[in-house]
Write a structure and sequence with these properties.
Helix content of chain B: 25-40%
Structural class of chain B: alpha/beta
Shape of chain B: globular
Number of strands of chain A: 12
Shape of chain A: elongated
Radius of gyration of chain B: 27 Å
Radius of gyration of chain A: 22 Å
Strand order of the largest sheet of chain A: 2-1-3-4-8-7-10-9
Structural class of chain A: alpha/beta
Strand order of the largest sheet of chain B: 7-6-5-2-4-3-18-9
Number of strands of chain B: 26
Largest sheet of chain B: 8 strands, mixed
Low-confidence stretches of chain B: 302-306
Oligomer: heterodimer
Mean pLDDT of chain B: 96
Distance between the termini of chain A: 60 Å
Largest interface: A-B, 74 and 93 residues
Number of helices of chain B: 23
């Protein structure tokens, strides 16, 4: 699927007018997806970008690949349908935290169980932006962002925990203002053989006035000596964290340390790869064991009709099995 | 009980028992025995929403020639528990017979927890009115008094003999074969050669010799008893020569076969009665053969000939995922479908609207069952016509195609994909519980006229460039734009649930909105113009009939069977079966219905939904409505009698049919 000619990140951009708010964290994700597509040398015609509903979902209109902007919460089943029908395509799903953790929660869990070879990027900002700032499932209990009449009455879900519990075999978190790091995570997530889940901390400058760019950057807690901000976000890899499952006996230890790291919040927020396990066969491989020609003759590409529309599927054997012979 | 002339080859047989006791396989065996003898069989299955213990029953009607429905009467009732006898003995006609277990004679109706209180009360009243007690013996005595032949089969004694002969150490290990003993006794009573039973058992147990032998040995003993105990039984079966083979299948299998033949490549589903059987059949047959004869690909002809085709069946987390995953598969180019029933269809609304606005060809096979809500999950209804027509918000074009019998289910399986792709919109294939669970023999259908039509597709090497880009929703003279699939070179497109421009990006422009709305609706007009009358409707019976029946779906069977009788009775009756329900074949309705003196709308729902639709689309109003909503399909004689009363001007505007246990 790799391209011969070199495409730049800008070559993956459409001319559609971008109507995100100035300063939106989504810009960083959009840019890094385009950079990652270029770095991966992906043929735009072999990539499907799939999104849910909301500001995040507009991403696909700004990217020059096949782009499917679906329904609220349904990004994962549509993305999986595309991938299952044609496993040779590169499928990248994007969506907001309300989309993925709220209305699409059942799909999030079951995508993990399937472990299809694809990447899902969650735009995590704690609010429903496009409907004017209601609390999303990732907003912490008691936090009152500016549209809320009262502090949030619900506890937040932890996307990293949920992804691990559901069976995602690659789990990472990025920060939309650390573009290079985020791009590396997207590249790694695409390359991962199996279902990769990437939680992206993405400040909403309009409705989340708590978890802002400044807050993530630690500007409220400047170093007393030099006055330099002490960022809340730190990189797992800089602290020697090793997320890779070496062999199946290593799964429990690696899952435990990922869960432990995912509890950190507040003054220290880890980003990077939490968990990476390539010892679980992805769903395509599981299907291939039942349908040997699955990758050569994908459901999407199989010919079903002859030149004049003759149905090619031979049902004679099935008819035969259901036949009662003549009685005389 | 006198030796009157026996009725040969016109039998309505019933077997019942607790769920999990092999009622279905015994009915399968009896029906197959009849089919091997050259008879045509029609089977109807009734069961509770329950795994084990509740009452289920199966009726088999066997005749030569054609049979498409059941009748209310039972000629021979086969039982091996007391509940079945209590529930159904009153349905046995006076010259009928009952096979039963004499060891259960002392069981009282009040002792049976699975009989509903209302029915218990009714049975007690029935017995008291006849001065009888409330045991099974009492019930049998009242039956005998009106002429019913009693055929007591001591099942336990036979099982003990079999255990002895086959060296089985515990009776419990073979207790299950009691159902086949009931079949054996039935066959003895009707005098059908026992060899047919052996062939049927071999079919049912797929040739597992030890099982076949043991069941056959037991069935033989019961057969001999049945023959001895009912020497003058007035209903007989005799073999008839039939030179052609027959298909013996269920509607679920017919549905699956049609989809496979039609090129289905991805089917998604969430478990739901009565739709899941179709998906399970597909999954069990996921690796397919492909006819290589017309394929130009020499280099991998080995694959083509061997296992070149496959259908991927995916069980999803819910019906929302089922429809949206099928949509994804369709966008990638596969012929994709899902199958569901009412509650699941409720969850698919938004997906159907999405497929409609994005012009995505996807097929939903809707196995209707009794609603609303969970309703009666295992019982029959045609209550979703209005629902399927309007499911979703906004104006969202879709095609509705309704099958009335097994062959139509097969053909429509292919046609549904053709229309979905030709008109680039969702197709809802309307079927129902009765069709799904009925079984029977049909002539092997000739499908040679069927062709696959994938509609307007963008060819590979299409010449689209940056200066001359592809527009998925191109506005032109033809409302159907050339369709590309994800992965194709040169044809990037976008989809969104929002209104879109020609490339598929979001728009709220009022002019474009109008154009896109009109484009989508124009496809429906095109479909109305192009789909042939032979698909839109069928008309049966007398031309210019005074009384014209109009209906849709599985009522076709009982209506056609009733029509045969009515025509033989020299009545001026016709039957307009509507198959394409959207776009609505208004012209056919006007042509066949408007002039008729009596316009009888028949359907399995409370509200006469088709009747309302006919009025809405044509201004023609049915003069009579025949409806049923107790969850049990219409019978041949119910329909016949209802029409007869209407013809004699003895029926009110609305007749409610109520038969069925």
């Amino acid at each position: 699927m790799a391209l011969e000619q070199v495409l730049k990140a800008a070559d993956y951009a459409t001319e559609v007018h971008n109507d995100w708010c100035p300063g939106c964290g989504d810009f960083g994700i959009l840019r890094t997806v385009q950079m990652a597509l270029a770095e991966l040398k992906l043929d735009p015609y072999r990539v499907a970008m799939v999104s849910g509903i909301g500001c995040s979902a507009k991403t696909i209109h700004y990217i020059k690949t096949y782009g499917i902007h679906t329904l609220h919460g349904r990004v994962l089943p549509v993305a999986q349908g595309i991938k299952l029908a044609n496993p040779n395509l590169e499928v990248i799903a994007v969506g907001g935290d309300g989309d993925g953790m709220g209305i699409g929660g059942a799909h999030f869990v079951n995508a993990g169980r399937r472990n299809l070879d694809m990447l899902y990027i969650l735009y995590d900002n704690g609010v429903y932006g496009l409907t004017k700032g209601q609390a999303s499932p990732t907003l912490k209990l008691g936090v009152q962002t500016k549209s809320l009449a009262h502090p949030n009455i619900n506890e937040a879900v932890n996307p990293i925990w949920l992804a691990l519990a559901a069976g995602a075999t690659w789990v990472g978190r990025g920060y939309s203002y650390d573009v290079k790091h985020l791009k590396d995570l997207i590249v790694a997530g695409v390359r991962h053989q199996g279902y990769a889940f990437l939680d992206v901390l993405q400040p909403c400058p309009t409705y989340n006035d708590i978890n802002t760019k400044e807050w993530y950057g630690g500007e409220d807690r400047a170093d007393q000596n030099g006055g330099r901000p002490l960022p809340r976000v730190y990189k797992l890899e800089t602290e020697g964290f090793d997320p890779v499952v070496k062999d199946p006996t290593d799964i429990e230890a690696k899952a435990k340390q990922a869960l432990e790291k995912a509890l950190e919040w507040g003054d220290r927020i880890p980003i990077g790869v939490f968990y990476n396990n390539e010892h679980v066969p992805d769903m395509g491989e599981r299907i291939r064991q039942r349908i040997p020609t699955y990758f050569q003759r994908t459901p999407a590409e199989q010919r079903v009709a002859g030149p004049n529309g003759e149905p090619l599927t031979n049902v004679a054997k099935l008819f035969e099995r259901l036949t009662v012979p003549p009685s005389a | 009980m006198s030796a009157k002339t026996p009725k040969i080859n016109d039998l309505s047989w019933m077997i019942g028992g607790p769920q999990g006791s092999g009622v279905d396989s015994s009915a399968n065996a009896f029906a197959r025995a009849c089919a091997h003898a050259g008879l045509t069989v029609f089977g109807k299955r009734e069961y509770y929403s329950n795994i084990k213990g509740e009452h289920s029953y199966f009726t088999v009607r066997a005749r030569p020639g054609i049979v498409r429905s059941h009748i209310d009467e039972t000629h021979l009732l086969a039982t091996f528990d007391a509940e079945t006898a209590f529930r159904h003995i009153r349905e046995v006609c006076d010259d009928g017979a009952i096979v039963y277990d004499p060891a259960l004679g002392k069981v009282k109706v009040s002792d049976i927890p699975t009989i509903e209180h209302r029915l218990k009360g009714e049975l007690k009243t029935y017995l008291i009115a006849r001065g009888a007690g409330e045991t099974l013996d009492d019930m049998l005595t009242t039956a005998k008094q009106r002429g019913v032949t009693l055929i007591p089969i001591p099942y336990n004694d036979i099982l003990e003999q079999i255990a002895d002969e086959f060296h089985v150490d515990a009776l419990s290990k073979i207790a299950r074969m009691i159902n086949m003993l009931a079949v054996g006794a039935s066959m003895g009573a009707v005098g059908l050669d026992f060899n047919y039973a052996v062939r049927a058992l071999s079919d049912v147990f797929r040739g597992r010799k030890a099982t076949v032998d043991m069941n056959a040995a037991g069935a033989r003993k019961a057969y001999d008893l049945g023959k001895t105990l009912a020497p003058d039984f007035g209903y007989r079966l005799e073999p008839v020569p039939r030179k052609e083979p027959r298909l013996f299948l269920t509607g679920s299998q017919a549905g699956a076969l049609g989809k496979l033949y039609g090129g289905l490549r991805v089917q998604t589903y969430y478990p739901i009665t009565p739709a899941s059987d179709e998906s399970e059949f597909l999954e069990a047959n996921e690796v397919l053969d492909l006819d290589g004869h017309s394929l130009p690909e020499a280099e991998d002809s080995a694959i083509v000939k061997e296992k070149g085709a496959s259908v991927l069946v995916v069980q999803t987390e819910d019906e929302i995922a089922a429809i949206t995953m099928a949509i994804g598969a369709a966008l990638a180019g596969a012929r994709a479908a899902t199958a569901t029933s009412g509650p699941g269809f409720c969850l698919m609304m938004e997906g159907i609207g999405y497929a409609s606005i994005n012009e995505i060809p996807v097929v939903v096979t809707l196995y209707q069952r009794a609603g609303p809500s969970t309703g009666m999950p295992t019982r029959h209804e045609q209550g979703d016509l209005r629902f399927a027509l309007h499911a979703g918000h906004g104006d969202s074009p879709r095609i509705l195609l309704a099958s009335g019998d097994f062959e139509e289910m097969i053909r429509d399986g292919l046609l549904a994909f053709n229309y979905a792709e030709r008109y680039q919109m969702p197709v809802i294939h309307m079927v129902d519980k009765a069709l799904a669970n009925n079984s029977g023999t049909i002539p092997v259908p000739d499908l040679s006229d069927l062709r696959i039509d994938r509609g307007r597709l963008v060819a590979d090497g299409n010449g689209f460039t940056a200066d001359h880009p592809y527009h998925r929703f191109e506005l032109g003279d033809n409302p159907v734009s050339p369709r590309a699939v994800i992965g194709q070179h040169g044809t990037l497109f976008w989809n969104t649930g929002d209104e879109h421009d020609e490339t598929g990006h979001i728009t709220e422009d009022p002019v474009l909105r109008d154009m896109m709305m009109e484009k989508r609706e124009a496809k429906l007009e095109l479909a109305a113009k192009e789909i042939p009358d032979s698909v839109k409707f069928h008309y049966f019976g007398a031309k210019d009939a005074q009384t014209v029946i109009v209906s849709w779906g599985s009522t076709k069977g009982p209506i056609l069977d009733a029509l045969d009788t009515l025509l033989a009775e020299k009545e001026s009756v016709g039957f307009l079966q509507l198959r394409l329900l959207n776009p609505f074949p208004a012209e056919a309705v006007m042509k066949y219905l408007a002039k008729a003196k009596r316009r009888v709308n028949i359907e399995m729902n409370f509200g006469a939904q088709l009747g309302g639709l006919i009025r809405e689309r044509t201004g023609v109003e049915p003069t009579h409505l025949v409806v049923k909503y107790n969850g049990r399909p219409m019978s041949n004689n119910e329909v016949h009698d209802a029409i007869k009363a209407i013809i004699k001007n003895q029926a009110p505007h609305r007749t409610v049919l109520t038969h069925g246990a």
